[in-house]
């Protein structure tokens, strides 16, 4: 009797363990099919436009409140400093374009955009490299970090 009760108890224990195991929960992605185009437009069109036109309202929408930047000289900046900078510093170049070389969009709502900025002034081209991290918050992409390096004139 004890042996039978023990076998039944072990079988119930095994059955209860098996019924509790569930498939791991898969988080639904907050990324949409349109996000690549939105990010490309933000980095190639909107962000340069904000600096070119000294548009603090546009830059304010692009940068997250926690935005930080490291420039080519190693100086740290934040959102407030960038907004103040574009108020008093008009762009002095003839044209500018940004060439995206890498764009990764993760399912958790984080994007990495890296590439080369091309500054043209009096037929002289200067380039720089940058990396940018953006986070999708409440349906909108916000830049939270940028790093610029390698500013150099092209031969």
Automatic annotation (TrEMBL):
InterPro entries: DUF4440, NTF2-like_dom_sf. Residues 1-21 form the signal peptide. Pfam families: DUF4440 (PF14534). SUPFAM superfamilies: NTF2-like. Residues 45-142 form the DUF4440 domain. Keywords: Signal. This is DUF4440 domain-containing protein.
């Amino acid at each position: 009797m004890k042996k039978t009760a023990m076998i039944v108890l072990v079988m119930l224990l095994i059955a209860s363990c098996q019924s509790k195991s569930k498939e791991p929960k898969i988080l639904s992605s907050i990324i949409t099919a349109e996000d690549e185009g939105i990010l490309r437009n933000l980095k190639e069109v909107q962000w340069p436009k904000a600096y070119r036109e000294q548009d603090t309202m546009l830059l304010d929408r692009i940068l997250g409140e926690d935005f930080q930047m490291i420039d080519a000289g190693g100086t740290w900046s934040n959102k407030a400093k960038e907004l103040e900078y574009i108020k008093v510093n008009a762009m002095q170049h003839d044209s500018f374009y940004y060439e995206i070389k890498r764009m990764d969009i993760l399912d958790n709502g984080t994007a990495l955009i890296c590439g080369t900025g091309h500054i043209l002034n009096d037929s002289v081209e200067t380039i720089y490299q940058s990396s940018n991290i953006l986070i999708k918050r409440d349906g909108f992409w916000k830049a939270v970090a940028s790093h610029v390096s390698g500013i150099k004139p092209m031969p």
